[in-house]
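Late entry, evening session. Most of the bench is empty. Finally got around to the prediction I had been postponing all week. Sequence below, unchanged from the version circulated by S.P.
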Amino acid sequence: MRTILPKSGFFTFIFLVSTLLFANVVFSQATVTTDKDDYAPGEYVIITGAGWEPGERVDFTFVETPKPATCVNSHDNFAIADASGNIYYGGFLIKENHLGVHFVLTATGQASGRIAVTEFTDANVKFSTLGLPSGISVTVQYQGTAGGSTGGPVNSSATFSTSGSGSSSTIALTGPLSFQFPSTITVSGTTYALVSTSPGSPTNVPINGSYDIIATYTTCTAPTALTYASNNPAYCTGMAVTANSPSNGGGTPTSYSVSPTLPAGLTLNTTTGVITGTPTVAIGATDYTVLAINSCGSTSKVINITVNAAPSALTYSSNTATYCRGGAVSANSPSSGGGTPTSYSVSPTLPVGLTLNATTGVITGTPTTVSVATNYTITAINSCGSTTKVINITINTAPAFTACPSNITSNTAAGACNAIVSYTATASGTPTPTISYVFTGVTTASGSGTGSGSTFNKGVTNVTITATNSCGIATCSFIVTVNDTQLPTITCNAPIVVSNDVDVCGATVTYTVTSADNCAGQTVAQTAGLASGSVFPIGVTTNTFVVTDASGNTATC
């Protein structure tokens, strides 16, 4: 295969081609050819020809473009035509410094004067493909070092057709070489993907010999309908996940990517697409787009990932709760850290009348039995684990009087206008209630306890006894009546005997009447006789007095 001549050699090429055409016309019976159009270093050029004078010497002249600076010796040589006028020469060795050189060979018959011309090149690298249909244009990019005397870096491309030889022109290169075939080629709706190159890129081109680089293609299909074993997985922090593997239709993906980045601790295998790992941070439901790719296209799938955490640090609005039998409790609500619990349980069973909501964990109800302080273990659970809290519940009861006196009637004590009254009033309740009393009416008083043994004034006293604890209040009411049944006392003067007053048929007499009672307020009335200081007539006058106390008790004298 031939390389393109530099511009400086273009007219020389045209001239030589013209000369060759002229020679073939004039001396059509003489020919010279080489066994190849292109040679690599280390190969011998085989020169043959026909139509020469038998036995004549045919001289070979080689013109090199460009001529290597290191090439100082002439390559000219000759061959002797055999009896049939054929020539043969195989002694021209192509060397490394010939890389990139275009040779024009002129054969001249020394006896016949006949001239024949041919040309060939010295290059080594050739690009070709396998697996593509005929007639496809392929362009290969390459970067390397030009061979031969030109040397120096080269960054170029070679375009060739899969028809004919199916390969590029031979290119003179040496040393390190990088190249890039198209990753895909689409022909009439069919896509061909690059499978491999032999050798791979980069490679190292040897000094001697031809160097063929072959790219192998195969038909391919873009992946389709990507899905995952779980498209909506929920994971737990600190727990290794079950490998979440993809599947798809169409072609086999060669790589995978995901956006945004998966939750911390999870990884996407970019070759297999499998999601694995141990998530470390809880995150709410989030969409992630996974892309499955091959050289022919891609497909995507949105998966939704939730990372939960086990609940932790469970506590209640009241961890030590005291309730009252018969009273609806205020909702006792839980709170926790970590992940949200999905269910709750309690052990042992809560006191009768109380319930634990198995979904929310809230304790509500109206307890119906008394219960001493008891520990209850509540467990908050979700798919990632659980946490517990011990709460203490006491069920108390409101006070109730177990003994409350009926109305009490008593008499005043001797010589007193009151009475000491004792009675029994008792109350139960948890906790033990506090007892207090209030007296109203003729007797007023208040204080702790029942008030039993207090002194009650004559008359009616209302007694109210109250029992109080954290669950309520109870009262006991009754009446204490103190009656005065003691008679008042009255003292009259002893009989009085006096003489009549001078010149009076009678006498002025004074006397005293005294009275007393245990209760103040008695009154004295004279029912017969004359008042003290009156003039009493001669004779016997009987004075009678009645004393009446506030209770209607009387005495006379």
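Two things to note before I forget:
Residues 1-28 have pLDDT under 50 and may be disordered.
The helical segments are 10-26.
Will write this up properly tomorrow.
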